[in-house]
Structure formats: structure tokens, C-alpha cells
Amino acid sequence: MLNHQSPFHQSPEEIAVAPLNPLIATRQQEVIQLLKQVIEPKLKNDIVSLGMVRNLRIVDDYIYLRLYIGSHQHHLQAEIQSILSPLSWCKKSYIQLCTIPNVKTTLAVSSGKGGVGKSTTAVNLAVALQLAGLKVGLLDADVYGPNIPQMLGLGQTDVQVIDTPNGQRFLPLEAFGIKVMSVGLLAERDRPLAWRGPVLHKIITQFIHEVEWGELDYLLIDLPPGTGDAQITIVQESPVCGAIVVTTPQQIAISDVRRSIHMFCQVGVPVLGIIENMSYLIGTHGESIPIFGSGGGQQLAAELNTPLLGQIPLDPDVCTGSDTGKPIATAISNSPVNQVFLQIAGAIAKTFQ
Ligand SMILES: Nc1ncnc2c1ncn2[C@@H]1O[C@H](COP(=O)(O)OP(=O)(O)OP(=O)(O)O)[C@@H](O)[C@H]1O
């Protein structure tokens, strides 16, 4: 099982702005305490700690909140209405549902630092989940380096737009049984995406809500590296129910990961665990050679009380797989790299199914 007991339990300030009025502050506390009694049955944790409740506001005798859930968790809305109903002062509670239609579990794959293998990890993890019989989508939201289509052999394919009863939607591409959408498919090949501020915000929001995914068990979102505007927008706009943070073992990468984890804490998204990539090279006699030092992922996991989900070796076949559009996990082999991806996919499936 992954970590859903985030070390960063949400404080009231993180799900709601602290009000100045003492009466409203008391009411807000009362509402948070009640919401904490609503338990997500599979994850066995309360909806506040899981980061599902955001933007809680009390205005006079009314409660407003946003509920970020998967398509299979709609029952939580009725449970919230019912748990809040005994509040004598509350005339009505308004719950805005924030889901991606037909998508059950949305996970973010993130890194504090660029080039640590975040996209490679996202792609191979998607493949490993698909091989486990799950319906998987991969959203490449790395606005600074969207190379997932290339890693899946999709090149610069045109994206189709279709009419649906809910308006126009982007149709995802498909590779190795995975539905794929990427911000890179909107850009000209080898030209940087020079989106900033409001344009960036709009494009990202469109990508999250205007893709016709169909039924998905998992949507993995490959975030841009770092902790800037783009990352925060994506995490705040989507029902991400957990983040997986990718790092390499060296100390310099670790301090960036700390920053990344604190960003998730601030927006109230639990960190499910850490994946250490390029952990070691396997020598000709089967020995592990720690090229980039060792122990970073373990140290971080212990410090932040979050599991180390796996340590992926440095392997030239990983690189070749990405470059040729055939991710290593698609080769049915028992290689150490593939074993780690299958192990992580297994832990995810066990937690959310
Ligand atoms: N375990 C590994 N063994 C060998 N090569 C790897 C491994 N992981 C990643 N790579 C290679 O490292 C390079 C960077 O990987 P990738 O693009 O996934 O990183 P990233 O963190 O997503 O980068 P960015 O910051 O640009 O988003 C790629 O060439 C990839 O093939």
C-alpha cells in the first residue's frame, strides 16, 4: 500500500482561508471537524487529509466547498450533505464537484529538478499499469519539455477535436493501449512553448477538462519539473489524489525534491511516495555501482515519512527505449528495471482498486 497518511496533514488554513470574523472562524472549525468524519472507504482516510476538500468558505449561514474526487466517488457528496445537515446555523451547503468525467484515479508524477527521468518514469509506469489490465491515460503537461509522444513513438501526430454532448473535446492518441494527450502535440516540432501567465493557465485547464478520455482507471499527469505557476495550476485544477515524486540519489537533487514536496503540502495533495531513478548501474558481475551516490531517496523517504516506492537502475536500454518510441516496460522481460516498474504499479493498484 502507498502512503495516504501524508506527513503533511492539512491544516485548516490549507483547505480554507482563515476568516477574520470569530463567529465564522468557529463555524469553519466546526465544518472541518465534521468533514473529517467522512472516510473514503478504499483509502481508509478522511476526505480532508486526502486533500479532496478545497476552497472551503463560510458566508453568513451558507457553506461553500469544492470536492475533488474520482468518477467512482460521487457518493461522498451525499455523505457530506448528510454530515453537515445537523448544523443548526447552516441554511444550505453548496458542493462544487471537481472530477474528470469517467476517470477514477488521477495521479501526478513530479520532480523537483529537471532531467531526473520523470517523463521516462511516467511512461513506463503507465505501461506497467496497462500490463496489469488497467485502463490508463497519460497526460503530458510538461509545458517546458513535452516529449512523451516521442517516447511512445507518436511523433508529431495531429490531435483531433470531436463534438460531444458537452461541447468540443480533444481526442487522445493511443500507444501500447495507453490513451495519450500532450501539450507538445499543440506545438510546432522543436519550437519551445512560449506560454505564460493566463494563456498557460487556460491551456492547462483545457487539457485537464477538455479531453475525451473515455473510461480510465488511472490518469497519470506528467508535471513540468519544479514548483512554479504551471505546476501549482495543474495540481489545483485537477482532482489529483496523490503525487509520486521522482528523484536521483545525489544530494543536489534531494533539496529540490523537498521544495516540490512542500508545494504539494501547500496545495493539500498527499505525496504517495518517492521513486529514486538512476539509483545504480549493474556491473558486468551483477554488482551495483552507485554512479550518482547512494541513499538520497531513502534519506528523503525517512525524513518525510513517505515510502520509497522503488529504485530504478541506470540502464542504457531505458534510454534506447525512450529514443525509439518503445518504452522498456513494453518489452516483456524480467529485467531489474521492469521488475521495479511492475512492483510500483502493483503497489498503486493495491492502494486504489
Ligand atoms: N534509469 C535510466 N537509465 C538510463 N537512462 C535514463 C533512465 N531514466 C531516464 N533516462 C534518460 O535520461 C534522460 C532524461 O529523462 P527524462 O526526459 O525522462 O527526464 P525528465 O525528468 O522528464 O526531464 P525534464 O526535466 O526535461 O522533464 C532521457 O534521455 C532518458 O532516456
UniProtKB/TrEMBL annotation:
<dbReference type="GO" id="GO:0016226">
    <property type="term" value="P:iron-sulfur cluster assembly"/>
</dbReference>
<comment type="similarity">
    <text>In the N-terminal section; belongs to the MIP18 family.</text>
</comment>
<comment type="subunit">
    <text>Homodimer.</text>
</comment>
<dbReference type="InterPro" id="IPR019591">
    <property type="entry name" value="Mrp/NBP35_ATP-bd"/>
</dbReference>
<dbReference type="Pfam" id="PF01883">
    <property type="entry name" value="FeS_assembly_P"/>
</dbReference>
<feature type="domain" description="MIP18 family-like">
    <location>
        <begin position="29"/>
        <end position="80"/>
    </location>
</feature>
<keyword id="KW-0411">Iron-sulfur</keyword>
<dbReference type="GO" id="GO:0140663">
    <property type="term" value="F:ATP-dependent FeS chaperone activity"/>
</dbReference>
<dbReference type="Pfam" id="PF10609">
    <property type="entry name" value="ParA"/>
</dbReference>
<keyword id="KW-0378">Hydrolase</keyword>
<dbReference type="GO" id="GO:0046872">
    <property type="term" value="F:metal ion binding"/>
</dbReference>
<keyword id="KW-0479">Metal-binding</keyword>
<dbReference type="InterPro" id="IPR000808">
    <property type="entry name" value="Mrp-like_CS"/>
</dbReference>
<dbReference type="GO" id="GO:0051539">
    <property type="term" value="F:4 iron, 4 sulfur cluster binding"/>
</dbReference>
<dbReference type="InterPro" id="IPR027417">
    <property type="entry name" value="P-loop_NTPase"/>
</dbReference>
<comment type="similarity">
    <text>In the C-terminal section; belongs to the Mrp/NBP35 ATP-binding proteins family.</text>
</comment>
<keyword id="KW-0067">ATP-binding</keyword>
<dbReference type="InterPro" id="IPR034904">
    <property type="entry name" value="FSCA_dom_sf"/>
</dbReference>
<keyword id="KW-0547">Nucleotide-binding</keyword>
<dbReference type="InterPro" id="IPR044304">
    <property type="entry name" value="NUBPL-like"/>
</dbReference>
<dbReference type="InterPro" id="IPR002744">
    <property type="entry name" value="MIP18-like"/>
</dbReference>
<dbReference type="GO" id="GO:0016887">
    <property type="term" value="F:ATP hydrolysis activity"/>
</dbReference>
<dbReference type="GO" id="GO:0005524">
    <property type="term" value="F:ATP binding"/>
</dbReference>
<dbReference type="InterPro" id="IPR033756">
    <property type="entry name" value="YlxH/NBP35"/>
</dbReference>
<feature type="binding site">
    <location>
        <begin position="112"/>
        <end position="119"/>
    </location>
    <ligand>
        <name>ATP</name>
    </ligand>
</feature>
<keyword id="KW-0408">Iron</keyword>
<comment type="function">
    <text>Binds and transfers iron-sulfur (Fe-S) clusters to target apoproteins. Can hydrolyze ATP.</text>
</comment>
<protein>
    <recommendedName>
        <fullName>Iron-sulfur cluster carrier protein</fullName>
    </recommendedName>
</protein>
